[in-house]
Amino acid sequence: MISLAKRLFGRLYDAPYVLLLLTMLFWAGNATVGRYAAGYFPPVALGTLRWILAALILLPFAWPYLRADWPVIRKNALMLTALSLLSISAYNTLSYYGLQYTEVINAVILQSIGTPIVLAFTFLIYGDRIGLRQALGILLAFAGIVLIVSRGELSALLEYRFNVGDFILLLAISAYSLYSALLKRRPPLHPLSFVTLTMGWGAILLLPFYTGEIASGYTVPFEPKALLILCYVVVFPSLLAHFFFMRGVELIGPNRAAPLMYVIPVIATSMAIALLGERLYPFHIAGFALVIGGVVLATRRPAAAAPAVKI
C-alpha cells in the first residue's frame, strides 16, 4: 500500500504541508458540495453511497489486514459499532441533512466548536479534568456558537427562532466529538483495517434509513450532476483526504497538523461566496472570532517555565 502510494503521488507523498492543505481544501469542498446537493441529492443516500463506494475501493488493499485482525474485530464488535455509528453513520449523514437548512458558512464555523466538546466528553468518560483557562475557552467558544445560531439577534434565544439546520449540525459535531474521545479505546487494529471496517460497517448501519428514504419517494436522480457529486465525495473528502491527513500527521505530528484545521472555514467561506452566492455577515465574523479564540484558549498548552540561568 505504501509503495503504491509513493508511485501514485511521487514527491507529494513527502510534502506534509501540501498534503494537509489539500486535505483542508477537500473537506471544505465537502461542505460546499453538501450544500449544493441540498434538496437534490437525498442526504441519507449521499452518506450511504459515499461510504459504501469508499469501503469497496479500499477493500482489496485492506482484505489481508482484515483477515489477520478478525479475532480482535469479533472481540471488540460493540466498540467498533459505536465508532462506526458515530463517525460514519451519524456525523456525515446529519451534516448533509443539516446543510439542507443552513448555509455553508454557518456549517464550517459551527464545526470549530468540536474541540471544546471533545474536552467535555473526555472529562465525562475518563475524568480528565480541565483547568480554569480551558473552561473559559469553552465558554468563549460557546458564546460564539450562540451568536452564530441566533444570527446576531439575541432576542431569538427567547423566541426559539433558531435555524433547525444549525441544531442538526451541532448534533453531528457532538457525535463526532464523542467518536474522537472514544478513540482512546480503539481496538488495536491495523489502520487500513480500521478505516475500511468503520467505513463499511457505518454504511451498513445506514441502510435501514436509506430504505426508509427510498420508501418515502426521496430517491437519487440518475443524472450526470448526481454522479459528479457522488464521485467528488467518494474520491476527495473520503479517500484522498483521509490518506493525505494520515500521511501529513505521520510526517509532522498531530500538534503541528491540528492548527491547519482552521483553514477550512476560510476556504469553505470563500467557496460558498464564490460558487453559491452566500453572504458573509458581521455576526459570522464575530462568532467565528469568539469560537477560534475559545478553542485556542482551551487547547493551548501552558508556556514552559524558562530555564534557570547559571552564573
Write down the overall geometry. globular
Order of helices and strands: HHHHHHHHHHHHHH
Approximate helicity band: over 70%
Contiguous runs where pLDDT drops below 50 for at least 5 residues: 303-311
Number of domains: 1
Structural class: mainly alpha
The largest sheet is: none
Mean pLDDT value:
79
Count of DSSP strands: 0
* Radius of gyration over all CA atoms, rounded: 20 Å
* Strand coverage percent: under 5%
- Please give the count of helices: 14
Distance between the termini: 55 Å
Please tell me about this protein's structure.
By secondary structure, the protein is an all-alpha fold. It has one domain. The chain contains 14 helices and no strands. It is globular, with a radius of gyration of 20 Å. The N and C termini lie far apart (55 Å).
Describe, in short, the structure shown.
With 311 residues, this protein is an all-alpha fold.
Write the layout of secondary structure elements.
Layout: H1 2-9, H2 16-36, H3 43-75, H4 77-98, H5 104-110, H6 114-126, H7 132-149, H8 156-159, H9 164-182, H10 191-215, H11 224-252, H12 254-257, H13 263-275, H14 282-299
Helix pairs in contact: 2-11, 2-13, 3-4, 3-10, 3-11, 4-9, 4-10, 5-13, 5-14, 6-9, 7-14
